[in-house]
Fold this sequence. Notes:
By secondary structure, the protein is of the alpha/beta class.
Amino acid sequence: MYFLCGILTESNISMNKDIELFVKLYQEIEQMELTDQVAEVISPNEVWDKIDISLEENGTEDTRFLEALRKILLHTPKTASKSFFNQLFGGRQHRSLLGDLLASVLNNSMYTYKVGGPMIAVEKEILRRIASKIGYDHQKSDGMFAPGGSMTNMMGLLMARDYADDRSRFEGVKKPMTMYTSTESHYSNSKNAAFAGIGRDNVRYIEVDRKGRMIPEKLKEAIEKDKREGFLPCMVNATCGTTVLCAFDPLREIGEVCQEYGIWFHVDGALGASVMFSDKYKHLVDGSHLADSFSINAHKLFNTPLSCSIIVVKDKSHLYDSFSNEASYLYQTDDDAFNPGKISMQCGRRNDALKFWTLWKSIGDKGLGAIIDHQFEMAAKARKYVKEDPRYTLYHDEDSISVCFNYKDVDPVTLCNALYKENKLMVGFGKFREDTFVRLVTVNSGNDMEDIKRFFTILETFAELLR
Ligand SMILES: *Cc1c(COP(=O)(O)O)cnc(C)c1O
């Protein structure tokens, strides 16, 4: 092929060597994932002593360089290991990793079609398809990728603020504004309120029902009270997949409250909105079309590499109102629709779209739906196991990927910390109302029921030693 006939330069010889090295290291990592659980833990106060991390005036010869790099890899938690259940991401989709590696090789910046080429269309295709799944008119809607779900929520809040008072982006927030979110929602809401000039104290945390879902009547009461007191309510955030229980707020009811009061409705679907791909579970996001903006993370349930965070907006003019700045040195060709730099938070922007596209193109909507069904099925079976064994207490028995339980009288915090330090399992604990419990999340779609059973066996054996 013609592109292999170029002159071998010094730099492509060494790149080829590094690609060989990469393949070797990749295989070693995979081996560690199979045998070493998550990683042997080194405490932060020893890490410089135990690993050759320090940077120096002079460069390092290859042997020492490689030894240091290998040791770092060895002790770094393997999030694709079958023993990693700690956070709301994990596992590995090989097609997605391929896309991410190629995006790094090409290293485009996703602000203009001139620089991004067809990658801009790849991004647009994902945004369009998600918009139509939500129920938006794809001609009127648009969206953006941002570095994380916290940032897509931030974009939602900024549009909400500017919608509530369109002078605020010029003059700053002058009328005191409020926003509404459930007590179980993600902490980015509070941080974003501070960043956006609304203020952490003006976030109203709305009570949830015993299943962890926002109570729409309580939301209404809070809005009424604030209006009486002279606040300007600017946004309601509903969560699809809360952090601890993976509960789904009732979007339709909340959306109707927002319509009644003319308030921007943002859905934080970072964790759970991916259920829209499953025929079996898409009812959990019923009413999504009522949202003005909607965030979703593919790096959670779809196991793409971090980060792959998307916001879709019902009426794209809000993206232009809140984020566009003219920059004639940048935007010299093509129309605005293909120059996404006009509506992004950043200037230079990484290509986070290709890794989702490579997966989606390979397995289709159906394949994505099957991933969700598998994760929910594993969680349901894990819950059944816990429910049928009298040694366990189960805390939340709803469709979700969270399995919340305690084993006998073992303190969940002590148990999770000990499992981590001994490199047995990486799993976290959670709190809901008065209860603290172990929270197993079936996010890694590469796991099967054998892996989940193994999780319980390891946990039980270890817990007995602690008692
Ligand atoms: C993970 C998560 C976020 C934050 O997303 P990041 O990509 O980690 O910044 C926000 N909201 C919910 C509900 C989440 O689960």
